[in-house]
Write a structure and sequence with these properties.
By secondary structure, the chain is mostly helical. It has helices spanning 6-34, 41-48, 52-59, 62-85, 92-107, 116-124, 130-155, 163-187, 191-206. It has a single domain (63-217), classed as Tetracycline Repressor, domain 2 (Orthogonal Bundle), CATH 1.10.357.10. InterPro entries: Homeodomain-like_sf, Tet_transcr_reg_TetR-rel_C_sf, TetR_C.
């Protein structure tokens, strides 16, 4: 009878959700350091202190765990990088905030191994299947969001670019960040982030941005 009590069922659900979140947070950290391909139920059981059976009950199999980890990494990225930028006006102000948040997200090691999606993209960019599709969808949405802010800045008269220029700037800004993330991890230095910020600032000024709008990217 107690097993059918709604309060008992809700309590179990809350505990199950909390356990799932904790396991996935450990999984995202692990993947950022070691890559997604090596993530398994057994490996995560050792790292998280949970039993293999409990993790298998949450995710069913390795692919289910990998897909859930990608979704968790995406959610954290949105919370840290995208949502705070939405407090700023669409276009140039939001674009600058996105770039600054992006730099801070990697430099502050929100994930132990730097950028989560840099790690998973390297693992799965050439491996067809549901996991690659999930990674590609996340990256497609991110790059598309950056491009939308560049376009909005042009439409508002804050940047002076033709269609090719919009595409090039939307490609170049995240590329600078990705290179800074990789070099910082390799060399254990903050210097690549400072160089990326300067390069982003120069690109935006070259595209017609007012210097006063770029203060968040000052070194």
């Amino acid at each position: 009878m107690a097993d059918t009590d709604p309060a008992v069922i809700d309590g179990r659900r809350v505990r199950g959700d909390a356990s799932r979140r904790a396991v996935l947070r450990r999984a995202t950290d692990l993947v950022s350091v070691e890559g997604l391909d090596g993530l398994s139920i057994g490996r995560l059981a050792v790292e998280s202190g949970h039993s293999k059976s409990s993790i298998a009950g949450l995710f069913q199999n390795k692919e289910g765990l990998q897909l859930a980890t990608v979704a968790a990494g995406r959610s954290i990225f949105v919370d840290v990088v995208v949502e705070p930028a939405r407090q700023h006006e669409r276009g140039l102000p939001r674009l600058v905030a996105l770039m600054r948040n992006l730099i801070d997200y990697s430099r502050d090691r929100v994930f132990a191994g730097g950028c989560f999606f840099a790690a998973v993209s390297a693992d799965y960019d050439s491996k067809p299947g549901p996991v690659r599709d999930a990674v590609r969808a996340a990256m497609h949405d991110w790059y598309g969001y950056v491009a939308a802010q560049v376009r909005a800045a042009v439409d508002a008269g804050r940047l002076d670019l033709d269609d090719d220029g919009v595409e090039l700037l939307a490609f170049s800004l995240p590329a600078l960040y990705e290179q800074a993330n990789a070099r910082s991890l390799l060399w254990g230095s903050d210097r690549p982030y400072l160089l990326a910020q300067r390069a982003m600032r120069d690109l935006l000024m070259g595209a017609g941005a007012d210097e006063s709008a770029l203060q968040a990217l000052d070194g």
